[in-house]
Structure formats: C-alpha cells, structure tokens
Design a protein that fits this description.
160 residues; Glutaredoxin; globular; Thioredoxin_ResA/DsbE_sf
C-alpha cells in the first residue's frame, strides 16, 4: 500500500480519460478540490455492486466545487475482456457521469502502472486526496457510506 502523504494525483499514469468534461482533461484539473477516487474493474463484483454506485452517489451529493469524484479503471486480469470499448459501454449502461481514467498498461507485467506505483492489492481500492492532490487515505475494500462520508467531510473541513 502507498504511504499516505508520499504520493499525489500527479503520480497517476493515465492512457486516456473517459467521461471527462473536456478533451485535454488531466489530473491538474482537479486541483483545489478534495478528490474521491476509486480503482475498479468492470469484472469486479464488489466494484460493480457497491463502489461504482457509491461514487455515482458521492458525485451527486458533494458540491462539485469542493469534491471531485473520479474513477481509475485498473485492469490487472482479463485484459482482453476489459478494453476501452467495453469500458465505454459499461460507463454508459451504469450511467457513470464522473471522469474515469484508464490506468496505463505496464510493459513489465499484468498490473498497470498507477496500480503498481501506489501498491494497490486489488479492486476496489478507494483513495482520498486533499486539496493539494496529496494522497491521504487508501483502502483496499469497499468503504461504508458513513465512513467514507466522514473521511471526505474531514478533508473538506481541513480536519484531516
């Protein structure tokens, strides 16, 4: 697992963004806001049943000027089944309106670059970044709504 405070959003390696508000969208566009992100895969049951719906709810709940919600599609298995074309269809069918980054594939093995760099053990991995883009929490599991809401609120208020 990544050491909170040691990595930032700038350490993400993204091959493309889907559902972004403009074509040249980058992590720098998230500056000044608390960022709630989750690494997920389309074939991860917990991601599909819990994490993606939770991100949709968070995006609809928190003020966009205070909290940005983004996904990180981090494919470390079943690569042939989880292509960008499949991801676009998934995002459409599941009514995902927040930006989703596609983690850069690694030339060294099946685990993509950002997933490896951040020491993620699998999906879902929920990440919270402060307004400076510094990683404050990274959790390999689904995080309950109450726990996640408290963590986001703490960062918004500057308590954490």
């Amino acid at each position: 697992m990544a050491d909170p405070g040691a990595l930032t959003l700038d350490d993400w390696s993204v091959s493309e963004w889907l559902g972004a508000p403009h074509q040249d969208f980058a992590v720098g566009d998230l500056a000044g806001r608390v960022v709630l992100a989750a690494a997920f895969q389309m074939l991860c049951p917990a991601c599909v049943e819990k994490t993606v719906p939770q991100l949709r709810q968070a995006a609809a709940t928190f003020p966009a000027g205070e909290v940005a919600v983004v996904g990180l599609h981090a494919v470390f298995e079943h690569h042939d089944a989880m292509t960008p074309v499949s991801l676009r269809a998934f995002l459409h069918e599941f009514r995902v309106t927040f930006p989703v980054a596609v983690d850069e594939p690694s030339s060294r093995g099946p685990v993509p670059v950002t997933m490896e760099r951040f020491g993620m053990r699998g999906t879902p991995t929920v990440m919270l970044y402060d307004r400076r883009g510094v990683l404050r929490r990274q959790t390999f599991r689904h995080v309950s709504d109450l726990e996640l809401g408290a963590q986001v609120a703490g960062l918004v208020l500057g308590d954490v």
